[in-house]
Amino acid sequence: xxxxxxKFLNELSSSRSYTENYTSGNMSKDEALKILGLSSEADQNExxxxxxxxxxxxxxxxxxxxxxxxxxxxARDKLLKx
Length: 82
What we know:
Low-confidence stretches: 15-24
Strand content: under 5%
Distance between the termini: 24 Å
Subcellular location: Mitochondrion inner membrane
Keywords: Membrane, Mitochondrion, Mitochondrion inner membrane, Transmembrane, Transmembrane helix
Domain J: 31-82
Order of helices and strands: HHHHH
Main location: mitochondrion
Largest sheet: none
Protein name: Molecular chaperone DnaJ
Oligomer: single chain
């Protein structure tokens, strides 16, 4: 799971347009899947499991980043249509 997070963080920090996309609130389903490291066939259980595993790594209360936690929240919400 750490490799998924590392890949996401690297892509996010290396691409200004990628970062602007996420902060604009216009996250696409493909972007949400990429953040959570999931395929388009992922079901609700897989989405929640990936979210929980990644959130354990980036949660601000655990020394992580509020920014990345917000992106995980947005990705989960997009995929679960919240």
